[in-house]
């Protein structure tokens, strides 16, 4: 029998090619044989999340942490999962505190824990956590701002701060200004705060339901947090509002192909995009991948060959073309030349 690391290595091409369902089956088989392989449970959680199976993802994340409680990366992923995907403040806060107690917390972890402490009105805890953030990153402006506000309100005896942190909803944007909401969502996304960016964009589309860019961005963020159905719905809305926007169409096609599994619909979108721009390398590669997945090998070869014609140096297309042909004809041709 292969070792878990050998089986794990064999699964990586499935993940790299976006064949999530096949990767899930293979990873489950690996764990049937090697149930104590923590990395496998963690990666299976990631695959489940991409498939929208949130409860299975939670169980797999927990199993990885149970097997390797000192693995800070696993513990952080579990805490972030409770926070962002499940929106479970209590479990998220407990998980972040475990990470802190085990010495695996960075400034971001302390900051999130402080924000969540405010949500449950543990103001003294929040003060201590914000102070820890500033010990680690004295330049952290948001931590300083919230710390001063919490201190002032605790001192005055008020029940809640005048302005809560991102998790408590305000996020510092003018909720009546659509441009400000969008700009804030972009900044939050850059900082990796996907849940907060979603909150901003949801407010924005409540004001402007026909804002195609906001719907497209929601598609991106919902995919990141493991909700492929909402992601696909927003991509569809964006395309419906701006059907000539090629970026929105690509995003929808990629979601349909690699996540939802609607390969036929995805291929029709790719082909439509190629009519508009026959030299779009990204679309040619995606179309080749789809044809390869549905066993249309000749069509896949045409798409990859077209990429090589446009970009002779494109090694990825070359490798895929070689794999289809079963022989290294491209290298033979180069040598002959």
User: How many β-strands, per DSSP?
Assistant: 0
Please give the alpha-carbon distance between the first and last residues: 45 Å
Helix and strand sequence: HHHHHHHHHHHHHHHHHHH
Which fold name is given in CATH as the topology of the domain at 87-170? Answer: Serine Threonine Protein Phosphatase 5, Tetratricopeptide repeat
Global morphology: globular
User: How many distinct helices?
Assistant: 19
CATH architecture title of the domain at 87-170 = Alpha Horseshoe
Radius of gyration: 24 Å
Alpha-beta content class = mainly alpha
Flag low-confidence runs. Answer: 166-175, 327-337
Overall mean pLDDT: 83
Largest sheet: none
The level 1 CATH classification of the domain at 87-170 is Mainly Alpha
Strand content: under 5%
Q: What is the share of helical residues?
A: over 70%
Notable characteristics:
Serine Threonine Protein Phosphatase 5, Tetratricopeptide repeat; 337 residues; disordered C terminus; mainly alpha
Describe this structure in words.
The protein is an all-alpha fold and 337 residues long. Among the domains are: 1-68, Tetratricopeptide repeat domain (Serine Threonine Protein Phosphatase 5, Tetratricopeptide repeat, Alpha Horseshoe), CATH 1.25.40; 87-170, Serine Threonine Protein Phosphatase 5, Tetratricopeptide repeat; 262-337, Serine Threonine Protein Phosphatase 5, Tetratricopeptide repeat (Alpha Horseshoe). Helices cover 75% and strands 0% of the residues. The protein is built from 19 helices and no strands. The chain has helices at 4-16, 20-33, 38-50, 54-67, 72-85, 89-101, 107-119, 123-136, 141-156, 178-190, 194-207, 212-224, 228-241, 246-260, 263-276, 281-293, 297-310, 315-325, 329-336. It is globular, with a radius of gyration of 24 Å. It starts with a helix and ends with a helix. Residues 166-175 and 327-337 have low confidence and may be disordered.
């Amino acid at each position: 029998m292969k070792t878990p690391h050998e089986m794990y290595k064999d699964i990586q091409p499935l993940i790299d090619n976006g064949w999530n369902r096949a990767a899930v089956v293979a990873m489950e088989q690996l764990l049937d044989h090697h149930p104590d392989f923590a990395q496998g449970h963690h990666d299976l959680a990631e695959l489940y999340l991409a498939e929208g199976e949130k409860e299975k993802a939670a169980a797999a994340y927990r199993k990885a942490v149970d097997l390797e409680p000192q693995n800070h990366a696993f513990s952080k992923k579990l805490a972030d999962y409770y926070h962002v995907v499940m929106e479970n403040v209590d479990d998220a806060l407990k998980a972040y505190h475990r990470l802190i107690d085990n010495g695996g917390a960075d400034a971001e972890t302390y900051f999130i824990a402080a924000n969540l402490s405010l949500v449950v009105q543990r103001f003294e805890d929040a003060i201590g956590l914000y102070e820890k953030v500033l010990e680690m990153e004295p330049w952290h402006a948001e931590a300083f701002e919230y710390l001063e506000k919490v201190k002032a309100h605790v001192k005055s005896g008020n029940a809640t701060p005048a302005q809560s942190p991102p998790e408590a909803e305000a996020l510092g944007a003018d909720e009546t200004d659509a441009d400000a909401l969008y700009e804030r969502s972009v900044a939050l996304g850059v900082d990796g705060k996907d849940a907060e960016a979603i909150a901003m964009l949801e407010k924005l589309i409540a004001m402007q339901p026909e804002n195609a860019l906001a719907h497209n961005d929601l598609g991106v963020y919902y995919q990141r947090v493991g909700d492929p159905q909402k992601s696909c719905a927003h991509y569809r809305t964006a395309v419906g509002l701006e059907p000539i926007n090629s970026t929105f169409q690509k995003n929808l096609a990629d979601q349909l192909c690699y996540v939802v599994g609607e390969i036929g619909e995805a291929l029709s979108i790719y082909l439509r995009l190629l009519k508009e721009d026959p030299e779009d390398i990204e679309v040619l590669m995606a179309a080749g991948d789809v044809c390869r997945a549905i066993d249309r090998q000749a069509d896949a070869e045409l798409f990859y060959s077209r990429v090589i014609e446009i970009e002779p140096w494109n090694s990825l297309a070359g490798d895929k073309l070689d794999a289809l042909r079963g022989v290294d004809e491209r290298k033979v041709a180069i040598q002959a030349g």
